[in-house]
Design goal:
374 residues, seven-stranded mixed β-sheet, elongated, alpha/beta
Length: 374
């Protein structure tokens, strides 16, 4: 399998124009407990996704839209972000960091970042959402409607799993409703907002505040205008292992565009120093990290291999995350599972259906099977 040279992240995208007088806040403070054991060593937004940390994809999309000042609202393993991105100049950004000493919830985290903002409008992104929305279009909706705050809303097939956000014929938000078996609309909050700067300043400082349960309902009650920007663009919450794997695969295959993709979109991305046997099958949106290895006759489908991971001869890996330096032994079958850093899955083991192996754990050859065949 051939490996093409690395390409730097692009700085242009499909946005219709560069945004003006807009700053951005990206909320990246969560612990990512649903993705353990992957997040034991790194914050969720820093996990390798289609070849680069997920946050790189989001920051490059923000920059491509014309926004240059970005404040990261951090908490869990806060030092990891600044160590990797520095001042943001490599991405064409003025990147600043605000650390929460204690959890402040969504609106509290936005208010905590306010001192680093100067533009008249503030665009807020959840740092674990993969989306195809055009940031400029959301700001257009916000400014054209004269809204105090604008929410990106997406339509989903099954809104029962989410709170729903009904709007009137002009797109004005009418209410914020909790999960119900009979939601009145298929529109849900997509985790991307635009606020007037003065609205951010009015959020109470120094205590936890939720945008969904306090800020937005309070604005509605006061008569402020909340606008919905409704579309059917790609949208995925990367909070679970299955969603994380799917999101990475969709980026690799070009289902959703990213200017940060380190290789051209296709069946797989193989990073520098990785070794893939000529007769191995690596496809389905797989990302093979630096110095990783895929042995002869192995199959890797729709998976994420972190740097230094090894998939042995004849092994089968499908819809999995294989952590840094982890080893999948020869003949092993691993499906829909998460393998932590430095773990070893012995030869001919069989792991399926959501198994999670913690970092450093070693399973002996034939140690776990889900079928009688050996």
């Amino acid at each position: 399998m051939s490996v093409s040279p690395a390409e730097p992240p692009a700085t242009e995208s499909g946005s219709r124009r560069a945004l003006r007088d807009v700053d951005a806040v990206v909320l990246v403070g969560g612990k990512g407990t649903r993705l353990r054991p992957l997040t034991l060593s790194a914050p969720k937004p820093m996990l390798p996704t289609a070849g680069v940390p997920f946050l790189t994809h989001l920051l490059c999309r923000i920059r491509a839209a014309g926004v240059t000042r970005v404040v990261l609202g951090t908490s869990y393993k806060a030092e990891v972000f600044e160590r990797h991105f520095g001042d943001g100049s490599a991405l064409g950004l003025d990147l600043r960091y605000v650390v929460e000493d204690r959890p402040l919830d969504t609106a509290g985290a936005i208010r905590n970042a306010a001192d680093g903002l100067s533009a008249r409008d503030v665009m807020v992104f959840n740092g674990d959402i993969l989306s195809g929305v055009d940031p400029a279009a959301v700001v257009d909706t916000h400014r054209a409607s004269g809204a105090h705050a604008t929410l990106h809303l997406v339509r989903v097939k099954d809104p029962r799993r989410f709170g729903s956000v009904p709007t009137d014929e002009t797109g004005r938000v009418l209410a914020f409703l909790e999960k119900t078996d009979d939601p009145p609309t298929d529109q849900i909050n997509a985790g991307c907002y635009v606020f007037r700067r003065e609205v951010v300043d009015e959020i109470p400082a120094g205590r936890p505040v939720s945008v969904e349960r306090e800020t937005f309902p309070g604005l509605l009650e006061s008569g402020a205008r909340l606008q919905g920007h409704v579309d059917t663009s790609y949208w995925l919450d990367l909070g679970t292992p299955a969603a994380f794997v799917r999101g990475s695969a969709d980026l690799v295959r070009g289902v959703v565009h990213s200017p940060a993709l380190p290789r051209p979109a296709g069946p797989a991305i193989v990073l520098a120093g990785a070794r893939v046997a000529d007769d191995a099958k690596v496809h389905g949106g797989t990302a093979v990290g630096e110095e990783a290895e895929v042995g002869s006759g192995a199959t890797v489908e729709g998976s994420v291999l972190f740097s230094g991971a090894v998939v042995g001869k004849g092994a089968e890996v499908r819809r999995c995350v294989v952590g840094a330096r982890a080893v999948i032994g020869a003949g092993a079958v691993v499906e829909d599972s998460v393998i932590g850093d430095d773990a070893v899955i012995g030869e001919n083991c069989e792991l399926v259906g959501g198994a999670r192996v913690w970092p450093g754990v070693e399973l002996p050859s034939n140690g776990i099977r889900f079928s009688a065949d050996v």
